[in-house]
Amino acid sequence: MAITDWPENERPREKLLARGCAALSDAELLAIFLRTGVTGKSAVDLARELLARFGSLNALFAADLRAFSAVPGMGAAKYAQLQAVVEMARRALAEELRQGDTLASPRAVRDYLRLKLEHRPREVFLALFLDAQNRILAEEELFAGSLTQTSVHPREAVKRALHHNAAGVIFAHNHPSGVAEPSGADRHLTDALKQALALVEVNVLDHFIVGGGSAYSFAERGLL
Fold this sequence. Notes:
By secondary structure, the chain is of the alpha+beta class. The chain contains nine helices and five strands; from the N terminus they run H-H-H-H-H-H-H-E-E-H-E-H-E-E. It has a five-stranded mixed β-sheet, sandwiched between helices.
């Protein structure tokens, strides 16, 4: 049955307008993005098929063009549109972070870092350099590859913090394995970075590990 034949209060677009985005399921939100289905399938049916195939919205966003286009009815145009939506969300969160006290918006920090790092195929170590009012001065990727205790050099972090005249820094890296839990190497690296930056009076405010749809905070767990 086509969505236009559904009761009006059950159609995704009308439901969103009447009750807000939070009232919709992942499949219903995705159906609004898709707009139309394919022969024999409504947009909601197609959305459910996409989510079943990839497992989650996060995995769908991370899919490459080949995997996305393997779903009947999907192609380069829809893929480009989807990636544009994800990038707009990422930039909107970045704007929110740059408008005020970063520590006053922990949800925005977490959401931004998830969108930034969740889908990277390799480990990436990121630094957000902050001023004395916890406003973002700069963002830099300090390392990309297989992260070990010696991959990110504390002296390089100190050098970049001094370059930006930073008062604080938030570190983040991803676990492509999907497990957002710190390893022993992660803990040792965080301690080394904290000690090195303390020598130049720069505070390490947090270290996030992103993976599996979540972000682990060292600060929240009392590890800083």
